[in-house]
Amino acid sequence: MKTFEPSSRRVTDSATKWPLPEGRRSKPPFILSTHADNPRWMLVQRIVASNNFRRSALLSNFLLFVCDRELSGRTAEINEKQIGLQVFGRTEGYNASGDNIVRSYARTLRKRLEEYFAGEGQKEEFLLHIPRGGYVPVFLSRKNDDGVSHIVTAEPEAVLPASSDATAASNAVAASIPSAAVLNSDFFKETSDASDRLLDQKATEERTPPASPLLMRNTHPEPIRKPRYAFNILMVVCIAALCTCAGYFGGLYHLPYRWLHREPAADRVNRAFWEQIFDKDRDTFLVPADGGLVMLQSFIRQHVSLEDYANGSYRTESRIAQGIVGLVQPAKADDMLRLTNKVQAIGNRRYTSIADLELTAHLARMPEVIPQRLMIRYARDLRIDDLRAGNAILIGSIEANPWVDLFQQRLNFHFSHGADFGGSGTITNRHPLPGEHLTYASEPNDPLLRTYGVIAWLPNLDGAGHVLLIEGVNMAGTQAAGEFLLNASLMQPVLEHAMSPNGVIRPFEILLSTDNIAANASQPHVLSERIGPS
User: Can you give the residue ranges of every domain in the chain?
Assistant: First the structure.
């Protein structure tokens, strides 16, 4: 018996430093015990070592966990709550119905498995599939000489304990009768069709009685029907008439020119831009701002760093109790405890603004979007692997989306927290050009109530993908940046400046300004732009 350890750091809500150095990884979140010579387990090991999995430790651990439990006969443990606890480090008693991280990663896992068997795993002896509606993996053999894929039932290495738990029972049934889920899936539709043809052929042979010699003689042959020449001739005449009319009116109104006109320049350059962020070969993560984080920081009067945000330590009771000292006078113990619990509840909930939701909805409906590759993530559920392996659109500044801080050092227009909690943030112009200011912020005494935003386009963490930042010194600034981004005519000059001869959009930053009346942004305009090297 061999013990394998998962390849990633455990996701935890404790105060463990993040990200962990290579030499100081946390304790593995679960133990894998499977015979190393099991061909199905060897297949799993090859999958997690493939290009599609090696950069995502969470997906690899997800697959390792469910496959190990299936091959060990412990299918009762393959449920959403156990996966959340063992793979994603959720605390005991967490609400699986309100936290969709397992379901979200399961969709990604199914797509990555399909991509593996369509690419690197084309010659694998077995196929691995996780049917929708559950998490129990199914192993199938490749097609044999009869043209049918056969389900390979895992021989468990441990006896499944008796349990009355409904989830365990349903998972056990799914594991013992996997064909229903598999044959209903698109992934194995070809197998289903082949099986149905064989079964229909056999049933027909069993129902058909032996033919009588007398019936084999065709004493009354059916007369040969004559072709419907008249109907065919009529159709030819009609088509010819239509073609003649189309040619006449086409020449009269120059219709071919109107039909084949060139795509407008603004649409063409914007399409090239969006096709690079919505890439068919990698996932794109769309991450709106965390409104609950903004409210929590206003209560505890402390700015939450990316490290604290990633490990969840900012939401602990002790951290909140320390931050709200002085908000209640006199400070009675019971009152402080009630206030701490209320503030903690705000921090645990998932809030975002209507402006961010509208921008997210517009982006998700872009014609260049590839639905199978678009992942909408709440900021608290995003992981460092997502920003390393995929493209990302991050909405909001560091006050509401701490993941932006990973890219701040690369930018000329740098966001910093405002002086007062809940007030405007500040944009620092690190290398001001002639006529530019050193800082930009919303001033309370400004009669126009000007606000500012930034759109930045730069490489992701591994340098192969892209990250799009949409930021503002406040909600109106972020809204203005989003409106500018979605306006093809406004974006055209910037994209043309940033486009290299080979069609690749170089890194760029745009500093925007707009008037903000009653929290509604007017038409934004460019104050400054920076174009990076190719």
Answer: 2-194, 229-258, 270-288+352-531, 291-349
